[in-house]
């Protein structure tokens, strides 16, 4: 199992490497692994994809004060 901090580290690397295309590239990697039968790897990349989407979001989370 991969730790939550490592998921976020990977997401940051994806954002630096792919910029606005990071969510798409993360999803592609998850799909490739799923198609190859690596369900555990695909699940990790889905978590990374989710983290990338959160990082890419311009809407702040939570209540605005």
Helix and strand layout, with pairings?
Blueprint: H1 4-18, H2 22-35, H3 39-56
What's the count of strands?
Answer: 0
Mean pLDDT rating: 92
Tally the helices: what do you get?
Answer: 3
Q: What can be said about the biggest beta sheet?
A: none
Give the amount of beta strand, in percent: under 5%
- Our measurement of the CA-to-CA distance between the termini, rounded to an integer number of angstroms, reads 37 Å
Order of helices and strands: HHH
The tally of structural domains comes to: 1
- Gyration radius from CA atoms, angstroms: 13 Å
Relative helix content: over 70%
Structural class: mainly alpha
- Tell me the quaternary state: single chain
Shape designation: globular
What does this structure look like?
The structure is a single chain. 72% of the residues lie in helices and 0% in strands. The protein is mostly helical and 65 residues long. The chain has one domain (4-56). The mean pLDDT is 92.
Q: In a nutshell, what does this entry contain?
A:
With 65 residues, this protein is mainly α. The chain has three helices and no strands.
Which key terms come to mind for this protein?
65 residues; mainly alpha
């Amino acid at each position: 199992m991969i730790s939550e901090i490592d998921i976020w580290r990977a997401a940051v690397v994806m954002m630096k490497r792919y910029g606005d295309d990071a969510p798409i590239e993360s999803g592609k990697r998850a799909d490739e692994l799923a198609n190859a039968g690596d369900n555990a790897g695909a699940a990790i990349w889905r978590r990374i994809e989710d983290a990338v989407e959160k990082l890419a979001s311009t809407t702040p989370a939570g209540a605005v004060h």
